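ARCHIVE CARD
SHELF: 3
SLOT: left
DATA:
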Amino acid sequence: MTERLYLLGHPVAHSKSPAMYNAAYERIGLPWRYDLADFAAADEARAFLEGEGFLSVNITTPYKPLAFESADATAASAKLAQGANLLVRKSGKLIGFNTDGQGCVAYLERTGLVFAGKRVAVCGTGPTALSIMHACSVAGADVCLLVGRDKERTRGVLESFVERFGLLANATIDLPAAHPHHRSFRTAYERTTFKFGSYATSEKALASVGLVVNATPLGMHAGDSAPFDTAILRPGQTVFDAVYGHGETALLRGAREAGCTVLDGSGMLVGQAVATVNILCDLAEAEQPLADDELFALMAEAAAFDL
């Protein structure tokens, strides 16, 4: 049976997702077709999600909070982020997930970055930033700093995130870590120090962390500025920008000039896509014979990413 799968967002015409997912499902041998669903108005996006014409939907800016609200049930990853980037239909119900953080960490680890004991700064206060905060803590980061434009707003976002994390961590039996070098959900909550700040008040922290992640929309359009003054960056830091496909962003250009290791969001896109394929095939009870490395290479090639 041919199933319909989509990427929902606005704008999405530039997306590499259809090429990646269609290549993956063709290799796996599933008669599934992946297309774009571009809606400028939230009402149109909501009506689309309320329809029944799809097996799953990936969600990008600006509809992750809307997808979270539309889900009948949500995984911890989506609850923590307060946004879903994946909805899967199972027994007539929509289940929401957020694979952004998982994809980001998996890609960064693939490049050789080790999170154990690392201090990480994440720029942004939306679902993508919170998903990455969670994944970094699970991967072993000692300190996760959330940085936004307004210090008090960022404080509120972080405090709510930590409260949700604690409630979820102690709500059920703690399962073992998914990877040998990672922490369990509860251990991640207990051992990570979560901090907050604004770009104006966190310059010293941004200059001292091992990893800086941009999870804001800045960089999606040509001419966008960096979230902060890149002159504070130092050689030896890794700077990752979740944005991809628009050339080198102002953040990565400034970070490269400062002597940092710079990475754009193409690898994260493929990383979260690998997680998506595995989740969807599991819920659809479809055999998925490819190892993660093979799936990553296949989807990266389909997207014409040199990773």
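SLOT: right
DATA:
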Amino acid sequence: MKITILILIGALTLNTSFAQENMEANFSFPVLEGPYMGQEPPGLIAEPFAPGIISKEGWEIEGMFAPGMKEFYFTTRKAKGTPITVIGFRMENNVWSKYTEFKRIGEISFSPDGSRMHMAEGYKDRMDDGWSERKSLGSMFDREDWGIMRLTASEKGTYVFDDYKSGDVIRMSRLNDGTRQAPEIMGPIVNTGEWTAHPFIAPDESYLIWDSEREGGYGDSDLYISFRQEDGSWGKAINMGDKVNSDKWDAFASVTSDGKYILFNRRIDDGSDDNNMDVDIYWVDAQIIEALRPQE
């Protein structure tokens, strides 16, 4: 079941091609006004994001607000065998409306300043009112023997990304005096268990969130967090708890650029049919991060 999810949601579509760049998904949206796509913010127990609007039957995944909180993106498809697309909304005059849709080639994330959209081993840069064509990060990352699903970046330019072709590991690449360093596999604090994937590094590198299936978890992949220590090392992996995790697949966390909320994916069906999955976007108050931070 997990292999199907990871390939379907993160990897196999990297080589998907179809005739038209922009595809219309089977979605219609009401008028949405105000911050956070007009949604009432959650508390300390995770709940669906925009139920019946964004999170609905089928699968809607990878929800992210771009820095500035005036754009929201998520990934979806109409039905099995149809193209996977990213839909983007923009808020103007306090009203949200769909402004872009493009094929998904790698799971998206954003540089902390919002100028770059990362897409696995590729990226798009902001241009005028939209985004450039997808470009490659170069041979250091664009390798046939690696399977990058998600890459996130810190304010210092550190890249953290997963690699499903190398046994589901997470790697890190730093900038040193402006020179990109070769990626290194992170240690067992992060790379323990199965299906380790979808890392999110805090803009200031103070913590790292990822998902993995580990002993002592809640039954499937859970979200874990590790905090940066004073000596630069990573602290122990902390399960983010039953207010975030469930007995189902919980994965792909990101924290909004205002630092207030965590968005992530959750599979909500019974897991009996991997060809007809129901996956929604959930969110929860990011105060839970500080509640989990070890006290000195």
